[in-house]
Design a protein that fits this description.
Elements (H helix, E strand, L loop, with lengths): L3 H9 L6 E4 L5 H8 L6 E5 L2 H13 L6 E5 L13 E7 L1 H13 L8 E6 L3 H10 L2 E11 L2 E10 L9 H4 L11 H11 L1 H5 L5 H21 L3 H24 L1
Parallel strand pairs: 1-2, 1-4, 2-3, 4-5
Antiparallel strand pairs: 5-7, 6-7
The structure holds S-adenosylmethionine.
Length: 253
Amino acid sequence: KLSKRLQTIADRVTAGARAADIGSDHALLPVYLVQTGKCPSAIAGELNDGPLQAAKRQIAEAGLAKAVAARKGNGLAVLEPGEADTVTIAGMGGSLMAEILETGRLAGKLEGVRELVLQPNVGEELVRRWLFEHGYVLQGEWLLEEDGKLYEVLRALREADSPTDVTNAEVYDPAFLPADMDAERKRCWLFRMGPYLLRQRAELLPEKWRQEHGKLKRIRAQLEQSELAESRGKEAQLREEMEAIEEVLSCLQ
Ligand code: SAM
């Protein structure tokens, strides 16, 4: 049985897709997708030997060596162009995820990939921006809690193939933020909080940003103890950021 987090990702993968899970670790997700018949085949990509061996063991134990391939490599380098319909990447920071997607795109590895299901641990904004800038349209966002941690799952389709014909301009509609907020700020918050999560007033969204606010508050308290002059500047920046979060939180209540 998959964890709630991995199950949420698995449920978003289109049935029948040839999947590639990048940074797969134990290959739980690709094994599940093929074992349940949701996907005909899958690739588990791993950069590191330990997780790669764990992936190979998992695949062998499931008796799926013919349908699930474990490959060693950096990001999307494990893929041949046109080999996968859906790419999943989970459990890493948004900045690494955006870097993997960009390097892969430049190497032509995303050709033929119509669906991306992504679960960044932090830095979701960077992933949304990458998707937006490269012709992928968000189709949905999910915010879930597991073992006291909050996770976001993003599903995007390549604009050219998007069956719902929803455009990025429609997805990033600023109407879901207070009318008196300036346009640039609205845009920034849509990328940070997630246009679907905002629109749906996702139940856990205020909690997520309260936690974020709490983190900044703790850092600020540490800075207050510091005698370094540069700490004052950082403190001021943090205060501004905290006020911005408070402003957005107040519109979510
Ligand atoms: N995707 C699994 C999940 O969500 O449960 C595993 C997440 S694990 C925290 C991150 C994995 O990504 C590690 O196994 C790590 O070795 C792998 N990884 C990190 N950077 C990578 C890269 N550039 N290319 C492929 N795999 C990478």
